[in-house]
Design brief:
Layout lengths: L11 H8 L1 H4 L7 E3 L6 E3 L5 H18 L7 H15 L10 E5 L6 E4 L3 E5 H6 L3 H16 L2 H4 L11 H6 L17 H5 L5 H17 L5 H21 L11 H4 L4 H15 L10 H8 L3 E2 L7 E3 L2 E4 L4 E4 L5 E4 L4 E4 L5 E8 L6 H9 L6 E8 L2 E12 L2 E11 L4 E10 L3 H13 L2 E2 L2 H5 L4 E7 L6 H5 L8 H8 L13 E6 L1
Helix pairs in contact: 4-6, 6-10, 6-11, 10-13, 11-13, 11-19
The structure holds zinc ion.
Amino acid sequence: MCLDHPANLLSRRQLLTGLAGAGVLTGAAGCVATNAASGRDSFTGFRSIEDDIAEGRANHPKILKSFGGAYEDPRLSGYVQKIGLRLAKGTEYQQYPYRFTILNTQIVNAFALPGGFIYITRGLLALASSEAELAGVLSHELAHVTARHGAERHGAQQVAQLGLLLGAVGLRAAGLPSDLMRIGQTVAMAAIKGYSREHEFEADTLGVRYMSRAGYNADAMATFLSSLREHSMVEARVLGLPAGKVDEFNIMSTHPRTVERVKQAQAHAQSAAAQGAGKGRWAANEYLDRIDGMMFGDDPKQGVVRGQTFTHPILRFEFRAPDGFHLRNSPTRVQARHTSGAAMVFDMGPSKGARSALEYLRHVWAARSRLHDVERLVIDGHQAATGWTEGRGEAGPVHIRALAIRRDRESFYRFMYISPRNQAERWARPFRRSGQSFRRISPDAAARVRAQRLLVVPARSDDSIAGLARTLPYGRHNESWFRVLNDLAPNQPIGEKQRLKVVAG
Ligand SMILES: [Zn+2]
């Protein structure tokens, strides 16, 4: 998580008014024009190409802010920009100022803003295995831009679902601390909200066209989608969620596609363009050379998860989640989940003038909830306050403990511990211990927190997957993760001359 508090970002409503403003004008006399990329008559309201560009430009800084900023590696970002521009040359719209940005996050996703602003995450780059796969992703996003899907998108109904935690625990509004329900409604979420099936299919079809024109093997679109599905399944297992219900930022939730549909799009695009299947470049070695040394996992600047501990070396604190919880960092908060349905969320909130932790808890953070057993605490020398309330989850009533720890005059650290009501007793002590584990760390301890790197190494005859996967940060899921990173099916042995992605540091 970063210093920026989600409250500083636009609300979903504000964003929709601005971002999808034109779409909301349905019913008014909009103009219908034939799109040069899709060949369809499309309703894009009163929007011009210039409107698209202005919108992209205005939202670009917000996207950066919400996803940990741009990944600063001139060699790698220059490479992605070069491939992107090569693909953009083959599109029907040259008037967009195409810009390709690598986002500094382990989340696996890619998306586009109108006007030619295209984003790909570090996490996605780690997963891809060839330039052709990268080209497939960029082409698909380019197609969302050229077919002007953003301008066609209507209303709020397609806004991505609330976050992982809310989705998983299924909380509803009644009686919850007032800002719990705002979790996840960041500008970024609304900007990358999913497209319709038709738009996805069209983006695949056009994407195949663009990557073929640039000389890449269009089969890469389908091979990468398989990798994404594998990744999504491993992620779901790690989080103890049903397959497919993973993360609001995950590419599978914003681009719901199947390999079948991609293949169909491929056939469609190829017959139209009269291009042969299975032709074109993969450029796997070039790609692996480029990502060799790239940061992997959490950037220490945003805090890192190691086992049960979250450490933030810049803000200089750490805390532990209860045993069995899986921790997940994001730019705005840290959340953790247990397969039993219990969960926790950690973030920071502005004090809004509250003079004590108690006042903050009662009158700011949980102002709209009925809190019980409110008590003052001191944690690691910090003033703190805690209390509990009840809420409703999809699976029944939930028990929620809120804990606020004073950071400074302006802000509070906040823990929210949630359990199904019938498990409240089971989790009372582990939750209390977790809250009490919060502590400041020394500058030396902070300096020891280093980023992990992705390295590309040649396979050796004595390599074992267990050995190579040991350094990944996913505990008992390390081997599955290693297989996904290296395109190895379950039980498939390492190829004799395979170049392998391993994690160091
Ligand atoms: Zn898409």
